[in-house]
User: What shape does this take?
Amino acid sequence: MIIKQEHLVESIYSSLQYISYYHSPDFIKAMVLAYENETNQSAKNAISQILINSKMCALGKRPICQDTGIVNVFIEVGMDVTWDSELSLEEMVNEGVRRAYNDSNNLLRASIVSDPLFSRKNTQDNTPAVIHTKFVKGNTLDITVAAKGGGSENKSKFTVLNPDDNLTDWILKTIPTMGAGWCPPGIIGIGVGGTAEKAMLMAKSVLMEPIDINKIKDKTEHTNIESLRIDLFDKINNLGIGAQGLGGLTTVLDVKIQDHPTHAASLPVAMIPNCAATRHVHFSLDGSGVAELPEIDMSLYPDLEMDISKYTKVDLNILTQSQMDDWNIGDTLLLSGTIITGRDAAHKRLKSMLESGEGLPNGVNFDNKFIYYVGPVEAVGDEVIGPAGPTTATRMDKFTDMMLENTGILGMIGKAERGDSTIESIKKHKASYLIAVGGAAYLISKSIKKAKVVAFEEMGMEAIYELEVKDMPVTVAVDTSGENIHKAATSIPVTYSS
Assistant: This one.
């Protein structure tokens, strides 16, 4: 078979556009089941928003999450394949990535920076991809394309156990240390054996397999690996972390395990989570043209709408600190008014400006406002802003005391838990920390009615925006007395047998 350059480039492009707005059917089914079974109201609300967001994205063909990921491509090249191409395989893949992320009809956020230790300059087109190539018998290309969000990627874990150590013990000890920044519910990939790099590669690649844990459970006989998967699935969910770390019955939708022969003195173990914006698709090329991608059955989605009667409306423009004293963790709010955004790089520059005596940038006024940790997708068409879900708040912990002491902010909006010292700072300043649902970026963006860059425009997604919001859904995660929903959700000790 002759594989043409344009067919591969176009297939990479179309697959990345496809996974930016389509969840796979197995994921939708697993999330619907999780929603139906959930008894924790905060977690059920989060799962509902993720499903509503997913359906909106499928219909509107806009990204599920503002973090449109680092591209991972797994390619099995048939040894009988011949090429009609002027570009190398890597160059063809990256050309497809470049086209996908710069498509004016559905712009995707460019998050990749070169020179990672020093200048960290954005490449502007999300290249280069991370490409894994394997040569196999045959005359086709089998390709899996994934877009992996930074929040889940940052929670990857690796260890080398002793051969007689208990894998389950290590996993159940490690999962709680990952917090909620990986946006559960999602999938856990585990690679066991080989070498360090082999274990990590297996943990990543096994995430691309279909969600099938309930089918495995229904079997009358199980392999050792299947039995381990079931055991870990049940025990991880019994930890009570739940959707977005809010507690509840479903932390993982599946646990996938792949192993490989290893050295007699070693037991390398890698664990990588996939978030609620799980994005991947598989296709084959046989020389006949561009890949055909699966149709999405919209009937898989339940008929869900946000029940705003369960939310308290808050006017941010007249909100006072004393009014926030009435909030309790778990309260659901609809925010209206002005908020200011800021992410890692913006906080770093603000710190430098405050320490030098320069003060805040012209046009930036945090006084009596909330700061929203977000790096939105660029708007297309008549949009005010593109998908604009929260980023992991933990990364901003080291700046929180500075912001509360020097800018007059009332609090922060992000996702996932905060560190102990940050909780103390929030309590000291009588501030609040609110969480928006990671994995509901397009839904959240519809509550943003005006958006303008007010500082650091040259930093792209890291720029500071002033947003006018109307009924933006959030949950109180840390109240003014320092009560913390993420700690409360997992405060009941869980015992298990090794």
About this structure: Residues 492-498 have pLDDT under 50 and may be disordered. The radius of gyration is 23 Å.
